[in-house]
């Protein structure tokens, strides 16, 4: 007997068109599709070709029409401003329709891009949904990125309008957004026609005459506009994510496949029904925020929580439990790092006991590997299933999960359980490109076509899409994660195969940081590695080889490169440690031995690679790491 997960999985692989056509019945279409899966132009696949719909209509208007108008759609809970504000579906639809009117009055039409550079405030979700309403393509940029990163995205997306706010609020400080916005526009070659800026009372900003408009003023004059039908295959948004260079990848999401997949995932993966409360404690700047703060819960008719705060320090490590209790959250989603932060402050979970969490059903974690300690702690303290699931910006929703709405499997520590229906996941030998036996590590790849909701391409860059994801394993999408599948079908995700690191659940490119470090006039050569960190999972550490005859002190150079990364990439890079070394260990062919340096830094035993040009360098590296508090007594050669 197959269980419902197995049955759904098998059907989704044998008959993807039939499987997803059935799921698509749950979405309201202006015009039905001609072809469920258009595979006429491989490797480019399109879902629901010929179909027309509007994502905003499906997320808001449809629920109002169905009698959910007075149900809370979005609860903004902001401990940093001491605010809780609820928008019903009707109120949210009306605000979105008005802001869509604002955008239209500024000349934004279907297909135009709008960048949203905002903190975690309801206006960010309103701006996203307003774009969807008129068929404009939003691109949200995370607030922790610096002006240069924003400029790169402006130049790639070429937005007609940028929507921003005067400031964001971090635990210890107010972050003025306007100087970053102005700096980015100045740097960018593609200038927006205007900016709409929400003035926040904690730190209002000056508006540039002629270019900037006050959110409240334009909203007061706006007329609501209706939903514009778009093709299922039209882009809904672009979300930039770290690639292997300083040039981020513009992941494209379509309208039709995205609405179908996310709606389906809310029940199948998270076991949520319309009317229930779902909370993803992330940021709208990340894919988790797009999929599970904004679109997924609203498409399903749930209540979503938009939380402007941190797991600790706003005001304490009990804030998650307060939010769950106060808003009757059924299911929560966050990154393991948030739980590590809470566990560090409240190891006994004393604060948990102060709240009534009786309606809380499950905790989902993703964004980085879930370490067994955090899993056990969360499970023991919360007494609910703790579900690890694995996905990426590119995939838009979970590749692997314990799908609570289909079948609850026993949890195996270290595993996000099994492939979700739709994802034909395999493990291939990176050299032979053939499947490896169960239990053996290889490249985690997904057989094409990818299910709906995953990226159809990169923005304006079909070739980079092919090169980055499809080239290496013909017929498959390369996740760039390595791992294995055991003989019961449980998947284990071990590490990235590229230079992406995960810092506090945030995806960052060490290659991009190396580009910044190399720009320092005293640096001849450099390497950035992600080393283990008990709170953030990984943190970047820089190794600098200086040019001959440099007069500056090493301390000064280190301080300068740290500042450069903060200024060019942003505080989110959490680049705070660098050290000067005489040489970097390399193979005879000149490749830096990153794996070996990493093992030394992570206190793991390492082999001296036979290809190394000079084994003495490893001792120098170990000494350098010890001086900055990394590489302890446990490290050493095998
Ligand atoms: N705007 C401006 N700055 C920001 C920012 C934003 N939106 N978000 C983060 N930053 C800054 C932080 O203030 C910090 O600055 P600092 O170097 O001056 O201290 C820096 O970027 C690094 O941020 P972060 O890595 O988040 O560290 P933190 O110490 O502020 O918080 C955690 C650590 C674990 C509490 C926090 O990262 C967290 O809650 N993460 C889990 C949830 C999550 O967002 N996951 C994402 C994917 S699900
Ligand atoms: P992002 O695109 O920011 O969502 O980051 C995606 C990457 O984070 C993946 O490719 C993995 O390397 C890592 N990741 C996400 N979820 C998990 C998980 N549950 N277990 C292990 N790694 C994960």
From TrEMBL:
GO CC aspect terms: intracellular organelle lumen
Chain ranges of the AMP-dependent synthetase/ligase domain: 63-447
Membrane-spanning ranges: none
Any GO molecular function: propionate-CoA ligase activity
CDD domains linked to this entry: PrpE
One Pfam family recorded for the sequence: ACAS_N
Domain AMP-binding enzyme C-terminal: 513-591
Residue intervals of the Acetyl-coenzyme A synthetase N-terminal domain: 7-59
Family under the similarity heading: Belongs to the ATP-dependent AMP-binding enzyme family.
Protein name: Propionyl-CoA synthetase
Organism: Desulfatitalea alkaliphila
